[in-house]
Amino acid sequence: MARSLKKGPYCSPKLLKKVVNARDKAGARGRVVVETYSRRSTIIPEFVGITLMVHCGNKFIPVLIGENMVGHKLGEFAATRTFRSHSGDKKTKK
């Protein structure tokens, strides 16, 4: 279910604080990396250009935030399941 438009997008205050602090510390050094467990947070314009390490259940997946990702949720870019293969007849050489 979508969040009400009058409420606006949800972004974890803790995550937003981490991003702002990391940008201030990085300054001219460039690359900013922030770890987060908040998969439900919406990507906002302040996140563009940084790398967020999003937790997928057992490890952190690096996600470089671009302009076209604004408005999506962080969890969309860190898959939680790994597809192995369908069970079926294996092709063998004869």
UniProtKB/TrEMBL annotation:
**A single Gene Ontology molecular function, please?**
rRNA binding
Q: Which family does it belong to?
A: Belongs to the universal ribosomal protein uS19 family.
- Family matches, as Gene3D superfamilies: 30s Ribosomal Protein S19, Chain A (3.30.860.10)
Q: What's an example GO BP annotation here?
A: translation
Query: What is this protein's name?
Result: Small ribosomal subunit protein uS19
| Alphabetical list of NCBIfam families matching this protein | rpsS_bact
Q: What does this protein do?
A: Protein S19 forms a complex with S13 that binds strongly to the 16S ribosomal RNA.
- The portions of this protein that span the membrane are none
Q: Which GO terms describe its cellular component?
A: cytoplasm; small ribosomal subunit
Keywords assigned = Ribonucleoprotein, Ribosomal protein, RNA-binding, rRNA-binding
Pfam families the UniProt entry points to: Ribosomal_S19 (PF00203)
What are the top taxonomic ranks of the organism?
Bacteria, Pseudomonadati, Pseudomonadota, Gammaproteobacteria, Candidatus Berkiellales
